[in-house]
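Sample pair:
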Amino acid sequence: MVGKLVRLEPIDPELHAKSLYALSHEDPGNVWLWDYMPYGPFADLADFTGWLEGCSGSADPLYFAAIDQQTGQASGMTSYLNIVPADARIEVGGIWYIPQVQKTALPTEAMFLMFSHVFDELGYRRVEWKCNDLNEPSKHAARRLGFTYEGRFRQHMIVKGRNRDTAWFSMLDSEWPAVRVNMERWLSPDNFDAEGRQRTSLSDLNANIRDA
């Protein structure tokens, strides 16, 4: 899946392990990336590579490396999971990006590519987003992208020895055409000034869909 800013390609430990490990572990200030993940941080490159080898052999979750088209570096990961073709539903998750790209348009374009693939090419009916209910940035991201909040599943999981209440969000195929227009409008170069600051937020564009 190829965009202007990002390329999503299947995880390959030989291609991606060193870059992803270095960018997510060598700066101690990045350890928070793993706070709400069921895995990580990893002890060393070998430990991380071993985990990535498991990811590369998995069909569900189906993992991708997010390649920054400007630098050519693997700058994050994302995945499809809980894939149920019979019900035409799928989840996006396992999403993380290095801090250098988190505030850019790259992660949004990555989600646009993933949504386009499942709705427009596979004909799926429903995309889900689930996260720890304490993870406010993830909940904000879901609402910003046009997902609808469906509720909180209490004591849903035990992750790293701690209780996890799970916030559930969804986007339907009937909502996708409007979300697609809004994402295309937000990603347009016209939406950013000379310093790269957005003129209109995606959250504002998707407000009517999200709050319907």
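Strands lie at 6-10, 62-68, 74-84, 89-97, 126-132, 148-159, 162-172.
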